């Protein structure tokens, strides 16, 4: 048999195995054998169970990950993805309220908060002059204990004096209103698929270059002043974007 024909048949056989693995694991999930956030058996055990190689197994797991069925955490293994959160960018809510309204448990961890020289891209977003400074707040946000969002907030210091001394584990939306009398007005969203940068990967404990949903949010206040900019890196299996416009 010609070499090309052998390669084709081997590839076809591998693809059938990948499909069978995907169908089996999907069945475990839909039938309740594996619940949300349950850990899958180790790759070694799965390879033995499906009588296949790690390479073929990982191809199947990668396909399920791309479908949002499972997710991987560094040094911990593969887990069943929980239900997605419904996210409407036009709804002026905040993370904690959005998650709680859907019967889930939110939490926020502050990584650090500092006053820094404004990065060039943030200067553009906030329309600030050269050599300006901003407050940078880096946070990780969790749903039901799972880290799903790494976010960098960049705040115009003129509007939020001493804000980095406040409790930043709570909602910035509420802090702005209660402490500074500032409410969100118009907002610009940009969304695109990307991969996690190293800072986000470390914070969320995912492999470098794992798929992510990147959202840039530029916020104005009730007086149309640009007040802050958020750079959000979401686990892409976390959100269901749903928008209804009149």
Notable traits:
single chain, about 250 residues, alpha+beta, Arc Repressor Mutant, subunit A, Chorismate lyase, 2 domains, six-stranded antiparallel beta sheet, two-stranded antiparallel sheet, 7 helices, elongated, disordered N terminus
Lay out the secondary structure.
Elements: H1 3-30, H2 43-49, H3 54-66, E1 70-73, E2 77-80, E3 85-87, H4 95-101, E4 106-117, H5 120-126, E5 133-143, E6 146-156, H6 172-180, E7 184-195, H7 198-204, E8 211-221, E9 226-235, E10 239-241
Parallel strand pairs: 3-10
Antiparallel strand pairs: 1-2, 4-5, 5-6, 6-9, 7-8, 8-9
Looking at this structure, what is the CATH superfamily of the largest domain? Chorismate lyase-like
CATH topology of the largest domain: Chorismate lyase
Low-confidence stretches: 1-12
The CATH architecture name of the largest domain reads 3-Layer(aba) Sandwich
The secondary-structure class comes to: alpha+beta
Number of helical regions = 7
Total strands: the figure is 10
Which class of the largest domain in CATH terms? Alpha Beta
How much of the residues is beta strand, in percent?
Answer: 25-35%
Assembly of the depicted chains: single chain
The averaged pLDDT comes out at 89
Shape: elongated
How much helical structure, as a percent, in the residues?
A: 25-40%
Q: From the alpha-carbon coordinates, what is the Rg to the nearest angstrom?
A: 22 Å
Q: Helix and strand succession?
A: HHHEEEHEHEEHEHEEE
Largest sheet: 6 strands, antiparallel
Widest sheet: strand ordering: 4-5-6-9-8-7
Question: Distance between termini?
Answer: 63 Å
């Amino acid at each position: 048999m010609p070499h090309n024909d052998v390669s084709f048949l081997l590839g076809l056989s591998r693809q059938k195995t990948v499909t069978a693995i995907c169908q089996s694991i999907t069945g475990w999930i839909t039938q309740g054998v594996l619940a949300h956030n349950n850990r899958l058996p180790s790759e070694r055990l799965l390879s033995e169970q499906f009588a296949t190689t790690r390479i073929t197994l990982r191809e199947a797991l990668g396909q399920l990950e791309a479908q949002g069925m499972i997710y991987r955490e560094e040094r911990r293994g593969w887990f069943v993805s929980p239900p997605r959160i419904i996210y409407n960018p036009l709804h002026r809510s905040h993370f904690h309220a959005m998650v709680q309204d859907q019967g889930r448990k939110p939490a926020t961890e502050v990584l650090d908060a500092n006053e820094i020289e404004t990065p060039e891209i943030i200067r553009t977003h906030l329309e600030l002059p050269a050599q300006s400074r901003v407050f940078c707040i880096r946070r990780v946000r969790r749903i039901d204990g799972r880290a799903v969002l790494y976010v960098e907030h960049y705040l115009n210091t003129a509007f939020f004096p001493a804000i980095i001394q406040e409790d930043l584990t709570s909602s910035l939306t509420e802090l702005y209103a209660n402490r500074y009398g500032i409410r969100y007005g118009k907002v610009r969203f940009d969304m695109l698929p990307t991969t996690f940068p190293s800072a986000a990967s470390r914070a969320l404990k995912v492999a470098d270059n794992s798929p992510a949903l990147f959202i840039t949010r530029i916020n104005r206040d009730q007086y149309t002043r640009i007040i802050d900019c958020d750079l959000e890196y979401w686990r892409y299996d976390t959100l269901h974007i749903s928008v209804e416009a009149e």
